[in-house]
Amino acid sequence: MAVDYAVIVVYLAGMLAMGWWGMRRAKSKSEFLVAGRRLGPWMYSGTMAAIVLGGASTIGGVGLGYKYGLSGAWMVLTIGLGLLALSVFFSARIARLKVYTVSEMLDLRYGGRAGMISGLVMWAYTLMLAVTSTIAYATIFDVLFDIDRTVSIILGGAIVVAYSTLGGMWSITLTDMVQFVVKTVGVLLLLLPIAVVKAGGFAEMKAQLPTEYFAPLGIGGETIFTYVLIYTFGMLIGQDIWQRVFTARSDRTARWGGTAAGTYCLVYAIAGAMIGTAAKVLYPKLDNPDDAFAMIVKDELPMGVRGLVLAAALAAVMSTSSGALIACATVANNDIWSRLRGLTSRAAPEDGHDEVKGNRAFILAMGVAVIAIAIVLNDVVEALTVAYNLLVGGLLVPILGGLLWKRGTVQGALAAVGVGGVAVIGLMAAYGILAEEPVYYGLLASLAVYVTVSLLTRPTDAAVLAHWRERLAGRGSDDDAPVTATSAATLGQDAQAR
């Protein structure tokens, strides 16, 4: 294992070195939070693929393949489809807004007042996403070094917090590019062909496994539909995803780079399911399907290659963890803390160094909180399900409604967030946290309330909509001072007074 350990140590040291390098580039708020909005298509597509394909997509995707066969690819396929939809239909408009958070977009579209409650929901989602990714370090470091769960979480979490705090989005972008390459080589080019060969080839796999393992819909139509609601729609509105869209240097980069990343996700989904199916042939009686990835890596890969593939798993977890962490900190600072203090970038201008220092402090604080929660939390599946249900049930309708329907109003948006969120929580209490009904009915309730209240209330003021259209067209935006809650609300109030 000495060679494998050396590969992992070099990889982790490289992550910290890139954090230090990124610190030297991040001299302004824009550089720190969205990499100066300067990423070209290659770097943009690589980092976007890295953040959406985390530990759940890698270890969990292989586990689903072990349990259901090729149809186990559907979870990651719906992630890829969501990224494709975001890139083709919405990414160009989102990038042109020149905002930092989803809540700022809502304030801009509705004239203020919608950001705080949406910020709280988004913060809860990104926090739990970071926590669940951090917990995954325990599995990987246990395979690598056979060390205690708490120590594993602290070790993996500390490395991510360190490079994220040092250089913000620049450090995360650089590390994500390395992680993208490592995942591609480790999972697609090494583990996939080796696993299939070790299982005797595709023909032997078909001969040894039941027919349903090769049925496209074997996992079940209702499960696939739930994946679409949670993951495909979740890709359209998550702060962690939008913050990457904000890094694109042009509309074309956001559209075509994201399309390439989404296509890569589809390939990755099929690869994970194939690896899991091969593992079913090799280890037919595993108690936990999620152990399939670790077993096939430990037993079937040669020295050195094993270390690279484990580094790929570590890369998958780190990319999602760091992306969720900076998203969580950005929302906490810009959408919650600044609003509570009654501050905006226009009302209390600061130089770039101060803004970077403040955002860096929030990443550090959120990182420490994430590690602490990860140590004490046990049922992460339920926690993440609550976060995703709240995200989709509460925020999907007002966000997509704001982008697609000009008649939507701030009263309708607030009602949709409130009713959708309460409905999801109530239905989870009634049906169970892991039930599928809460997100179905919560989403329908949010849509009904949004449309009804919007039609019964005064249309959004023409001045607010005019400013919104200007921002969508890429005009009237100042990257150092984007429209925030106070300025958007003031614009709406002034227009109504006139």
From TrEMBL:
InterPro entries: Na/Glc_symporter_sf, Na/solute_symporter, Sodium:Solute_Symporter. The keyword Membrane applies. It comes from the Bacteria. The lineage of its organism: Bacteria, Bacillati, Actinomycetota, Actinomycetes, Kitasatosporales. Keywords: Membrane, Transmembrane, Transmembrane helix, Transport. One of its GO terms (cellular component) is plasma membrane. It holds the Pfam family SSF. It is found in: Membrane. Belongs to the sodium:solute symporter (SSF) (TC 2.A.21) family. This is Sodium:solute symporter. Signal peptide: none annotated. It is a multi-pass membrane protein. Residues 474-498 are annotated as: Disordered. The chain crosses the membrane at residues 6-23, 44-66, 72-95, 116-140, 152-173, 180-201, 213-237, 258-283, 303-332, 361-380, 386-405, 412-433, 439-457. One of its GO terms (molecular function) is transmembrane transporter activity.
